[in-house]
Amino acid sequence: MTLPPPHVMQAMEISAPGGPEVLKPVQVTVPVPGHGQILIRVAYAGVNRPDALQRAGLYAPPPTASPLPGLEAAGHVAAVGPGVTRWQVGDAVCALLPGGGYAEYAICPEDHALPVPEGMALREAACLPETCFTVWSNVVLRGGLKAGERFLVHGGSSGIGTTAIQLARALGARVFATAGSDDKCKACLDLGAERAINYRSEDFVALMKAEGGANLILDMVGGSYLPRNVKALADDGRLVQIAFLQGPKVELNFAEVMTRRLTITGSTLRPQSDLAKARYARDLAEQVWPLIAKGALRPVMDSEFPLTEAPAAHARMESSGHIGKIVLKVA
Fold first, then answer.
1. Which CATH class, in words, describes the domain spanning 132-266?
2. Which residues form a coiled coil (predicted)?
3. Which CATH homologous superfamily contains domain 8-127+299-329?
């Protein structure tokens, strides 16, 4: 017998903009799923850079989203709203959330949830949505990666990077990655990168030029990397920007972009429409979940923290010492 969800739940809220210490435990009302929505009893929640940006007051949630942080989770369906047809109470799911993952229960549109891959633990499944949605939409759809192309991903040992390396390799691309230590470079090589570049001691521009230039670059660093990325691209190459850890402003000579027919684009996931995210979820179910089933793609796990230790999880992520994903154990 499945019990109905309670009225109150434990969560971690952002008490004020600031560092990891502003994440505080709180008791809040359990959300009620609306039309086309499901309520998930969260077992694990993924920890991501946008959570830290929101905590710092730099990334406001959409007006209709929960103010609680947390953009992905895995667990079991606890209730369904009117019009839901894909899921039943008790189904094991992982989901892209508009917010609210740092809590015992979270809601999302039913089309933003995916089945937990067979044989995969909920701990690992919680690491899939944010990275898979981001990498698929930016590397495959926006970036147009093709088999045989040279693909460079910065931050190769991050959650996004480890997913991008594996997916690009599965699609037949030649994969190159940058990382900040020898251990991180080894992790990139173990995942299928042809070459891992320690950016503290090597010049990725020179190395990529020696290979003929990158056909596609996925970057979350920004700042001084932007003009260097342009130089590292092959003619007709594409640069996809998904974050700006070094800042969004830089001086760039666009003459090279024009004469070499380069494309600079980018996106953020959270502000996109529910319809766009539903399309990505369908693509993942059709194209990426089969890769997971045959072992060609797997989450790389760094560490696990209890929900109430979310500040420590954020400190771990912001130290940049992690390799792969960090999760919060909720239940």
1. alpha beta
2. none
3. Medium-chain alcohol dehydrogenases, catalytic domain (3.90.180.10)
